[in-house]
Amino acid sequence: MKNDNVAIGIDIGGTKISAAVVSNGQVISEVLTYKTPDNSKDILNTILEEIESLKDQYKPKYVGIATAGTVDIDNSKVTGSTGNLPEGYNKLEFKKVIEEKLGLKTLIENDANAAAYAEFKIGSGRGHNNTIVITLGTGIGTGIIVDGKLFRGKSGAGAECGHLVINIEKKRRCTCGAWNCWEAFASGTGFAKNAKEMANEIPINERTGILKDKNPDEITTYDIIEGIKKDDPFAVKAYEYWQNLVLIGLISLANVFDPDSIILSGGMAKFINYEKLQKELEKETVVSNVKLFPAKTENYAGLIGAAFLAVEKFSG
Amino acid sequence: MKNDNVAIGIDIGGTKISAAVVSNGQVISEVLTYKTPDNSKDILNTILEEIESLKDQYKPKYVGIATAGTVDIDNSKVTGSTGNLPEGYNKLEFKKVIEEKLGLKTLIENDANAAAYAEFKIGSGRGHNNTIVITLGTGIGTGIIVDGKLFRGKSGAGAECGHLVINIEKKRRCTCGAWNCWEAFASGTGFAKNAKEMANEIPINERTGILKDKNPDEITTYDIIEGIKKDDPFAVKAYEYWQNLVLIGLISLANVFDPDSIILSGGMAKFINYEKLQKELEKETVVSNVKLFPAKTENYAGLIGAAFLAVEKFSG
Q1: Which residue in B154, B156, B177 is closest to A260 by CB distance?
Q2: Mean pLDDT of chain A
Q3: Residues 15-74 of B with CB under 8 A from A
Q4: How does the average pLDDT of chain B come out, rounded?
Q5: How large is the greatest C-alpha to C-alpha distance in chain A, in angstroms?
Q6: Residue B146: beta bridge partners?
Q7: Other residues' Cβ atoms within 10 Å of the Cβ of residue A126
Q8: Nearest CA in chain A to B71
C-alpha cells in the first residue's frame, strides 16, 4: 500500500490542538481535538498521543505541524513570538522527538503560512501561482504564495503583512511594540478599538442608537455587527471605517505582489463586502486583475496545509 | 570565441538612453548616451543605432533593455505606465525589431527591476538571496529578489512598493491617482512637498533661517540640504520628517519580506543616515537581521542588470 501522500496534519493554537490524517488535501480520518495544555511538556505529550492514535489505522508516512509563532527556514523548529502558548514552547523539539519516537518525518510551519498553502492547493487560490491569504482574526496573519511556492523570507519569518505601517502620525501602538501596524487597526481587536475611540469622541448627550446608555469602552464587535443589522448610523460608520482600513492593506499588498488573488479568511472576513472592496481595489492600485475571494478551507486549513507541505517536502 | 555571457545593455529613461556592452557584470565598452528623442519612432532608431555601433567590435549575443514602465511577464514588451516617454512608446516592438533586423535575442525589463538585479549580482546585495532595492528619486522605484530570483508578480507589474499606502486620513494624492502612497511622501518630489507644507504652516513673521523672505512654495530639496549644513532648524526638521517617512516604508517591507538586506539607490539615497535607520529598523520590525546598505552600482545599474537577465534567460 502506497501512502506517500498520506500525512498527519496537526494545528497547534493557543486554545486547542487539532489533528487529522490528510490525503491529497482531504481529511480522511476523524479530527482529534484537545484543549491546549498550559505547560509545554503536556503539549508535546498531547501531540504524541494524537499521532499514536491515528498512525496504526491510516499508515501515514509524514507529520506536518502548523503552529503559532515563527518557524526556522528548515521547517524544523519554532523560533519565536508565541505569546499565547506556555513558556518553554519554543524549546520543544517536536521534529526530533516525533522522528525518533514514532519514525515519521516531520515538518513544522507557521499556521498562517500553512493555511495559505491549503488555500492555494485546494481552496480559493487553486491554480493561482501568486496569491496572498490574509486571516482577519484577533490579529492579522498572512501567508504568501510566490510563483507557486510558499514564500518564507530569508529565515522563515517573512510574510508578516499584519505589520505594514499604515499611518504617519503615531496613532496606535501594535502588540509588537511598533506604531501603526495594519493589524492594530484592521484585525478584530482593531475593529473594536476603532469603535471605542469613535464613540468616546461623541459627546454623551449626542450618543444615540447602540451608543445610548452605553459605556463606549465596553462596545464590542458583536454590538457593531448587531447595530448594522438595524442600520444604526454609528455602527455603519464604525464598520465602514474598519473596512476602509482593511482596504488600505489590500491596496499595498496588491501593488507589491501583483497577485492573481487575495483571499480573506478568519472570523472577521465574513463581514467584508467583497464586491465593494473588489471595485476599490481596481480603482486604487497600479496593478490589474487582482481578484478578492473569501477562503474556502477555513476550519482545517492549518493542518491540511501542513500535511501538504510535509508530503511535498519528504516524498520528493 | 565564446561570447555567451556578453550582451548589450540598454537603459531607456525619460531624459537619456544609454547603451554599453556588458560581460559578467562588467561594462567592457564605452557607454553610448543619447538624449531621449521626443517621438517613439526615433527612440527605436536610436537604439538600433546604438546596437549597430557596438555589435561588430564586441560580438554580443544578446540585448537586455531596461525601460521605464511596466513590462509583460515574458519580458517581451512594454505594457504600461510610461508617463515620461512619448506617445506610442508602449507600442514599440523592440524585441521583434531587434531580433529580426540584427539577429540578437532581446529581453526587456522594467528599469527598477533591472537595477535591483544588478545590485543583487554585483552590488551591495551580492550573495543575498532575498533583497530589496529601492530607488529614491523623483519617484520611488523598487525591485525585489526572492530566493535568488527577480520577483515579477503574475503579470510582470509587481514590486510597486512606491505604492504602499502609508496614511489613513486622505492626506496627499499620488501621481497614480490613489491616496497616500509612500512615493508621494518619501521620494525626492515628496521631500520638497513635505517641506513646502511645513513651511506654509509657519506664520510669516515666525519664518527664520532658510525660510526668511522666502515663498514657501518655492522651497527646493536643494534649499533644505544646504540648510542642514548650516544646522538650520527648519531644514533639520523637514529632513528628519522625510527620513521618518522613508523609514515607514522600510519597516513594512522588512516585515513582509524578511530580506537579508534593503539597498537604497537614487539621488535621495545619499541623504540617508544609514546608521540611524538601521537601528530604527531593528527596533521597529518583527524580523531580525535586515541590513540596510547604499547601492554600489548606481550609474549603470539598469543596463548592467538588463544585460545579466538577457544572458541568464537566453544562454540557459
Answers
A1: B154
A2: 94
A3: none
A4: 94
A5: 73
A6: B149
A7: 13
A8: A287
Residues of A in Cβ contact (< 8 Å) with B149: 147
CATH number at residue B44: 3.30.420.40
Q: Cβ–Cβ of B258/A157 closer than 8 Å?
A: yes
pLDDT tens digit sequence for B88-142: 998 999 999 999 999 999 999 999 999 999 999 999 999 999 999 999 998 999 9
Question: pTM for this structure?
Answer: 0.95
Which of A129, A156, A168 is opposite residue B167, by nearest beta carbon? A168
pLDDT digits (tens, 9 = 90+) for A257-315: 999 999 999 999 999 999 999 999 999 999 999 999 999 997 899 999 999 999 999 99
Q: Which domain holds residue B230?
A: 126-295
Q: Kindly state whether residues A178 and A284 are assigned to the same domain.
A: yes
- Residues in chain B with CB shorter than 8 Å from the CB of A151 are 146
**Who among A185, A248, A286 is closest to B176 (CB)?**
A286
Question: Do A66 and A177 fall into the same domain?
Answer: no
Contact between A85 and A69 (Cβ < 8 Å): yes
How far is residue A128's CA from residue B137's CA, in Å, rounded to a whole number?
Answer: 34
- Residue pair A285/B163 in contact by the 8 Å Cβ criterion: yes
- Strand B140-146 to B131-136 pairing: antiparallel
A264 in the same domain as A143: yes
Q: What is the pLDDT of residues A96-106, one digit of tens each?
A: 999 999 999 99
